User: Fold these one by one.
Assistant:
Number 1:
Amino acid sequence: MDLVPALEEPLQQPLKAVLGPATAKVMAEHLGLHSVGDLLHHYPRRYEERGQLTHLADLPMDEHVTVVAQVADARLHTFASPRAPRGKGQRLEVTITDGSGRLQLVFFGNGVHKPHKELLPGTRAMFSGKVSLFNRRLQLAHPAYELLRGADDEAVETWAGALIPLYPATAKLESWKIAKAIQTVLPSAQEAIDPLPQSLREGRGLLPLPEALLKIHRPHTKADIADAQARLKWDEAFVLQVALARRRHADAQLPAVPRKPAPDGLLTAFDDRLPFTLTEGQQKVSREIFDDLATDHPMHRLLQGEVGSGKTMVALRAMLAVVDAGGQAALLAPTEVLAQQHHRSVVEMMGELAEGGMLGGSEHATKVVLLTGSMGTAARRQAMLDLVTGEAGIVIGTHALIEDKVQFHDLGLVVVDEQHRFGVEQRDALRGKGKQPPHLLVMTATPIPRTVAMTVFGDLDTSVLDQLPAGRSPIASHVVPAADKPHFLSRAWERVREEVENGHQAYVVCPRIGDDVDEAADPKKSARKKSPEDEAEKRPPLAVLDVADQLAKGPLSGLRVEVLHGRMHPDDKDAVMRRFAAGETHVLVATTVIEVGVNVPNATAMVIMDADRFGVSQLHQLRGRVGRGSAPGLCLLVSEMPEASAARQRLNAVASMLDGFELSRIDLEQRREGDVLGQAQSGARTSLRVLAVIEDEEIIAQARAEATAVVEADPELTAFPGLRTALDALLDEEREQYLEKG
C-alpha cells in the first residue's frame, strides 16, 4: 500500500540518496533505520539545554553554560604524555573575553586542528560547555562553538536558548550527525499519514502526527516535548493494541470443539486420589479454564502464577478434562530438562491413571508420552505412533512437538510453559496440528505487571494464581558481600553443610558453564581495572565447572557434588536430575537450566554466585526452587559488588521481598522495556520508543479499550487507511524479524 511515498523513501538508493551512502549504511546496519519514516521515528533520548547566556564574570562551577565572547589569544602547545611519549601531544589553549571577564578554553589531541584554524584572535563566537577548574583557573574543555559572522543579537538568543536533542547513537555515528540527518528529512514529516482515528485524536486533545514529529525533533519549549511525547506514546500503544485486538477478534471467530469432562471419568478419578485439597485460587482458575474449554471457540488464556503456586496442577487438570472429552493435550516446555521433569512429575501425580493400555492401568487411564529432539529413533517412533493413533492422551515435549512429522489423532488443548521463551509463530505452529483450532493455555512463573500483560499477552485472557499451597515454607534470602566480608562466604558454605547434615540438599547456581574459551572476558580489557565495581564487572562470571571443582576439593569436600548445564547430553542431564531428585546427590552446581519447573522438595538451600549478573525476576525464579517442601528455604545471593552500587541495591530488593509482582515492577523499571517485551509478538517492534510500560499504564489501558471498540466496529479497518498502513508496517517488521531468527 503506497500511501506514504515520501516516508517510504529509502535513505540510500542508487538514483537519489537522501543521505550520503556511508551515513545511510551505518544507520541501516547499526540502528535499523532504512527509510525516511524510520529516521523520523528515531526519537531523541533526552534534550540538553545550552543554558541561558552567562557573563564570564559570574560563571558557575560544574554547570553547562553558553557564553558569547571574543577570542583574545590562542596558543598551541606540544607535550609528552604516555600516549605521545616523544613530545607529540598537542594542546590548544584559547583565551576568550566578553568585557566582564576572561575564560580559558582547552582542546586536546586531534580535536585541536579545527579550532586552531577557526578561533583566531578577534573572532566572535558562542561557546557551550561545562565549567571546570584547572590550576585554580576556570576553563571549558572541548566546548561546542558556533562562529558569529555578523550575527544579530536575536540569533544569539535563539541559539543559546535552543533545546539540543540527543539521539540514541552508536560509536560509528554520533548524536549530532543523526540530528543533522533528521533535519534534512524533517520537511517530509508534513506528509506523514496519521494512524489515529480523527475522533480519538480530537477527543483526547492530541497533536496531529506531522506536528508531533516536528516538535519532538525541533522543540522550542519543554511543553513542545511533552505534547509531542504524549501524542507519540498514543501511537505506539494504540497501533500495538489494535494488532492484538484484531488477533483476539480473529481467534473469537474460529470454531473449536467444546471439551466437557465426563462426569465420572479421568478427572474425577484423578481428583479422588489427590492427597491434598486444591487452594481456593487453584479452584477459581480451574473453573475459568473449564468454562472456556466448554465453549465452541478456542480458549486463549494466560495463567500467571507465583513461583510454587501450583500452576502445573491446574494445567494437568485442564489436560485431563480434555482427555476425558475424547481429545489429546500437548504440553510444550522450553528445555529438555524441563520437559523430562514435567513428564516425571505428571506420571507420578497420575499413578496408574498414566498407564493406559498397560497391565495394572486404571479403566480411565491414558498414556503419557515424552517427545524431545534427542530421543532415540525407536522411542521417538513409538511416541509419534501413540500420538497419531490417539493411544496417548497427553504428550509432553520441547520444540520437537512443532515439527511437521508430528501428527495428532485429535489435538484439543495446547499448554505452553514459560511463554516468554516462545514466539507467537511457534504457538501457532502447534495449534495448527488440530483438526480444528485447539484450546490454548499459556503458563508463566515470571510475574508480569498488568500493563506488560496487556502489551505482550494482549491477545490472551489472564488468570492469576497468587496463593501458595498449604505446607509451603517461606524462603529466607540474604546478600553475601564476598569482597567486603569474605568470612560471610565461608559461613555460607558452612550453612550448606548444615543443611546436608540435616538430611537436605542444596543448589549452587553460576552464570557460566566454563568449558569454553570464548566465554572468558577479554584479557586486554581486564588489564585496565579501576574501581572495585569495575573489577567485579570485568572479571569473567564464575563458572559451574570451576566452582564445582573448588567446592568438592575445599569447603564441601566429602559431600557428593554434581554438575548440571545446558551443554550436557540429555541422557546425562536426566540421570543427574534423577540422582538429585532421589537424594543421592547432596549439592547440585548448575547454570540457570534449573530456573523453572525443577521440583525437588528436599532441596532447602541455594547459593547464587555472582548474583548481580542475573535479572531481578530471574533471581526470584531461581529462589523458587527451594522451600518447596515443609522445611524452610534459604537463598544466599553472593556478590562482589560494592555496597553503594546499583547492583547491590537490586540484590537487597530481592532479599527483602518475596512478592514476585512487586519485584517484576522493579525489574522492569531498571531494564529497557525492549528486554521485557522480548519475544513478545515474536519481536514485533518491541523496542517501544517513547512508551514506558510501567509509567504509561493509563495510556495502555485506554488504548486497549479504544482499540477493542474500533476493531469490533470495523474489523478490516476499512475506514482507517492510515491505521492500516501503520499496522502493516508493524506486522511487516514482525514477520521480517521472525524470519531473521530462523
Number 2:
Amino acid sequence: MKKRTWLSALLAVALLVSMLVVPSASAAGNSAFTDITDPDQANAAEMLRLLGVVNGTGGGAFRPQGTLTRGEFCKMTVEIMGRGDEEPAQRSRTIFTDVSSTYWARGYINLAASITVGGSAGGDGESSTAGTRLIMGVGDGSFQPDRVITCGEAVTILMRVLGYGDGDVAGGLNWYDGYMGLASSAGLLDKLNLTGASTISRGQAAILFYNLLFAKTKGSDSLYLTGLGCKVEDGGILLDVNATLAGSNTAVKTTTGTYKTDRAGLDENLEGMQGDVVLDKNDKLLAFQPKENIISRAVNVAEWAYNEARLTGGETLELPPQTTVYQDGEKKVYEELWQDLKPGTPATFYYTAEGKVDYLFLRSASASDTAMVARNVPSGNPFTALTKGESNYQIYKNGMPATVNDIRQYDVATYDSGAKVMNISDLRLTGMYENVYPNTDTPAKIWVMGKELPVLPCAVEDLRNFKIGDTLTLLLTSDGKVAGAVTTAAAKGNAVGYVESIAEDGTAVVQLLDSVLGKVEGKTSYRGDSAEKMMGELVTVSSYKLGQITLTRLTGGSSSGVTGKLDVAARTLGGTPLADNVAVYEKVGSSKLQPVKYSQITAVSVPASKILYASKDYAGRYNVLVLNDVTGDLYTYGFMSKGTMTTPSSMGEIVNSTVIVTTSDKNGETKLELVGGVEVPRNAVGGVVASLNTLQDKNKIAGYVFLKELDGVRRSAFDMKAKTVTTTDMVLPISDNVVCYNKTTKQWFTAEDPMDALNQARAFSDNITIYYDRTPENGGKVRMVVVQ
C-alpha cells in the first residue's frame, strides 16, 4: 500500500475543481543545504540531516546532482537503521578483498554485510531457513565500493531494511525486478522515474531514503520511522512556521501545540493547512505532513461584509458569520473581527468535501524586516532583489493588484515569500523628529507626533541625516514600519484622520484613516467652542514643533475637489472609477467617523455635496471616500421619547432636554439617551446618532431622523434572500441591523442575526408594520418592524 503523498500538490475534488486555486507542488522545499533547488529533494535531504543520516559535502553543500557510490550508500543505510554506533567494531574485519583496512567506509560495509533479514531458526519439527544478507559482493570476493550504485541495487537494499528477503519477491528478467515491483507497491519509488539499471544521484537517493521512512515494514502497519523512535501525531492546523518558544531558537506552532525544531525552516505555504506532525525521539518537529485532498482557495478580498467577502474582480464568496478564523496564530470568529479587516488582506478559504466553508486562514502581513525604497524615479522594477530570484510573484500596491508601471519614487516594498506577493506601500507621515531609541546613530525606534514607530535597518542611514527637532517625511511599509526618511521638500505626508477628542488644554487625539498608524496626538490652538466645532471633523495632520500637531480641516463639495456625482452601480465618481478596495467612511455632523462597506450604499447616486472627502491612488482611482449621512446605518433606531438631565452650574441647576431611543440588540432591550433639544412627537419611531461632543459625560445629538410608517404589510412581501420588502409603490432594502418589536407581547425579537429576529416577527403575525427612513433611490431601508 502506498504511503500518503505529502508536501505535494493540494487536490481539489470535482465539486470545486472549477473554482479552487491550489498551491503548486511540494510545499516544503526549505533545507540547510544551500545548493538544492528541487523542493522534494530539499525536503528529503533536510529530514535525513535531522536524523543524522547525511551531513552534506561541506560548506552547506549537498551536491544533489552528484553520483552516489556503493560505499556511500552503505553508510547511509547503516545510519538510517540507527546502527551507526556499531560501525567502529567492524573496522578490523576483512570481508571483501577490495575494501582495505584504510578504506573510509570499511566499518559500514562490513556491518551491512553482516546483517541478515528474513529466515527462521526452526523448531517444533520445522527446518530453519537462511536469511538474506543486507548487501552482498559482486561474486568474486570484491565489493566495488567506489562504483556508482544503481537504482536496482539501492532499492533491493532498502526493501531488505523493511524486512523483505529473496523469498518474498518474484523473479524477473533481471535479478532486481522482483524487488523493484515490491518497492513500487510500497511507495519507495514515489516521485522517482527510474529503472533498475539507472544510476541514481545524491538528490534522488535522498528521496528514496525519505520514502523508506514513511513505508510500512514487512507484516506491520507501522511506518519504518516509528522503529527509530519517531512518531506521527495529529498536528491540527499549522499556524506559524516561525514561532517562538522558550529554550528554542526555532519553533513551529499548530493548533495542537508549539514544537521545538532544528529544521532549517518550513515553507510558509504550509501555513493554514491541516496535517500531522512528525516528531523525533526527543519530540522535536521533523516535518509537517498535510492531509490528503485539502480543498482551498487563496484570494485577495476587496471588501469584507458580515456574511460574505467580495473579491477584486467582483466575485462574491459566502462567509457565514460563525466561521472559524485563524489570524496571527490565534483562533477567532469571523463575526467578531470582520469590521476590522482591511481590503487586500491575503486570505485562504478552506472547504469541506461538501463545498462548505470549513475555516478561514488569514496570512499575517509579511515580516517587513527587509524592505526597499524606490530612491529614484523607477525604470522597471527596483525591488527585484527582495525576491531572491523568484519570478512567479504578484505585485500589490496598497492592497490592490498592481504592475511594475504603478511603482513610484519613494514607494516602499516588502516581499511575502509564502504568498509570493510583493507588497508596495506609498504610506507617508510628515512630522517633527521628537525622540529616538537608543540613539540617533543606531535608531531602533523613533517618535513623531507622540507615536512610536519601529525603524527597519534600511532606514538607519536616512535617519542619520536628521537630528531631533528636524521636520521630516517618513516612508512607511504597509504595516507601519519606517523604511526610509526624506526631507519634506522631497515628499509630503498623506496622513488623514478625524478628530476624536480635544482636551481643555488643547491636546487633540486624531484617529488616522490608515488603521496601521492608529492615533496621533499633540497640542493644538483649539479651545472651547472652536474645539467643539472640530470634533469629528476630517483633517490632515502634520507637526512642526515638539509636542504640537497641525490640523487642517477637509471640507465637502467642490471645495474638497470633488465634482460630479457618485454613480453607485457604475462605481464611478464624476466619471472617474473607484478602486476595487475603495475605503468608505461616513459621519453625521460631529459624530465619530466610522468605516462602512460600499455595499451599504443603496442610493442610486450620491451628490458631491454629500461627499466630505475623496482621495485618489497612484493610478488615479478614488481609493478613499468620506460620506456625509448617506447610508443611514450610523443611526440607532427604535421608539423615541423625551427626557431631561440636570446640570449643575454657578447659576444653579440647569435642566437640559434629552432624547431617549428604546431599541434592542441580540440580548434584549436597550436605551440610548443623548442630549439635545429635539421636539419628539408622541409615539415617534426614529433614530439618533451620538456626537463626539459631550455634556456632563453624556453625548450630545449629532443627528436625528423620524421614520416613515407603512402598515398592513404581509409576510409574503418579504424576500429574505434578497433582503427586500415589496410594497405597492416601491421595493425597499432591509437594513442588516433591522430591529423587530412585538406590540402584543411588548417584547423585542432577539437573535444573533437580525434576519433571524425578523423571521420570528414574520412567523408571529401576517399583520406587519414597517418603518423606513427614505425612498429607495435615496438610500432608504427598512429600519424597524412591528407586529401585533
